[in-house]
Amino acid sequence: MIRTTLENKWDKYWKDPNTVVWHKNIIGVYHVSAIGCDHQHLEPEDHSGPCLRQTFYQYVAPVEKNLKSKGNLNQGTVMHKEAERIYQIKRSYSIIEFPLAKSINKDIAATGSVDVVDFLDNNEVLVLDFKTSSEWTFPKGKNDRQITHFDQVYIYAALLQNFVFGNTKRISHLKVVYLNKHDQFTGEQEMEYVNNIGLSKLLDFSNRCKKLHGHLVDYRNKIYSCNGSYLPNREPMKWCKYCDYKNCCRENVIGGEALKTYTKGEVGALYAKETGKSPIWRGNYTKAYKDFEKGYKVE
Ligand code: SF4
């Protein structure tokens, strides 16, 4: 972890004026990575979204990411592109950033972009997705699978198998490759592709698109009388504590105008005043946030 008093100059050196915004938040167009499958049968610690409520907020009341988050995302994008570039040089028949679009009904289209589609011997195809991770999110081993990551690649594979390749090619397996941003360690996990499972994940995904679409259309049509009742249900997961919308989510409101965001220092001071103890920080997070992030103790 870097501790410095230097001002963050990310915008100056990294903000690319030619960046293409891939996610334009158009109601009726939903990206596979923002919708995923439903995992509310699992414990929140066992999955990492996506949460339809969080995606809803991104469409109707997006918050600007801070410079540190932008830098973090940007570093991931840089590594991602470089890994794809090198992969294609080594496997010249592979296709990188394979674009996908599929209508779900007359109002809704699903979109996505597959990192790598690699054509193997015997008419088999590998579908691969790169994920950048940190020291803390890197898988501990082969069986420490992040189900959400495999959902995404499974949905892509189901779209490819059933609506692009048909009987001409068989998707045999899926890979998720993890690029650790902290120490450059790279690892991979693999899974067999089974089309029936792919189709059931695709159905789950399609239903979630329809559900979110219903909430967004209701919100758009009654935008002036909105009081939060158009929100999809919460889908708690292990990264809720870092969610940009956690304050609005907790209060069931849309838009954060009425909610002050307390700084790290302010949260620490409130905690210390009430408890007489100093908060223990792990990076930018402290348990004190849970109780004091809104400026008062949440019982
Ligand atoms: S705090 Fe959790 S449940 Fe609420 S919107 Fe964010 S991710 Fe969803």
Structural summary, described in words:
This protein is α/β, with parallel strands linked by helices and about 300 residues long. It folds into 2 domains: about 15-225, Lambda Exonuclease, Chain A, CATH 3.90.320; about 240-290, no CATH class. It is about 35% helix and about 20% strand. It has 9 helices and 8 strands. The strands form 2 sheets. Strands 1, 2, 3, 4, 5 and 6 form a 6-stranded mixed beta sheet that branches. The longest helix is centred in the last third of the chain and has 27 residues, at about 195-220. The model has no long low-confidence stretch (mean pLDDT about 90). The structure holds iron/sulfur cluster. Iron/sulfur cluster binds near residues 53, 54, 234, 235 and 249. Iron/sulfur cluster binds near residues 54, 234, 235, 236 and 249.
Concise summary:
It contains 9 helices and 8 strands. It is α/β, with parallel strands linked by helices and about 300 residues long. The chain folds into 2 domains: about 210 residues, Lambda Exonuclease, Chain A (Alpha-Beta Complex), CATH 3.90.320; about 55 residues, no CATH class.
What key attributes describe this structure?
Lambda Exonuclease, Chain A; alpha/beta; 19% strand; binds iron/sulfur cluster; 299 residues; six-stranded mixed β-sheet
Helix and strand pattern: HEHHHEEEHEEHHHEEH
Number of structural domains: 2
What CATH architecture of the largest domain would you give?
Answer: Alpha-Beta Complex
On the 0 to 100 scale, the average pLDDT is 88
Q: How much strand?
A: 15-25%
How many strands in all?
A: 8
Q: Major beta sheet, specifics?
A: 6 strands, mixed
Q: Low-confidence parts, pLDDT < 50 over ≥5 residues?
A: none
Shape annotation: globular
**Which structural class fits the helix and strand makeup?**
alpha/beta
Amount of helix = 25-40%
How far is the N terminus from the C terminus?
32 Å
Radius of gyration: 21 Å
Specify the CATH class of the largest domain.
Alpha Beta
DSSP helical segment count: 9
The distinct ligands, each listed once, are: iron/sulfur cluster
What is the fold named in CATH at topology level of the largest domain? Lambda Exonuclease, Chain A
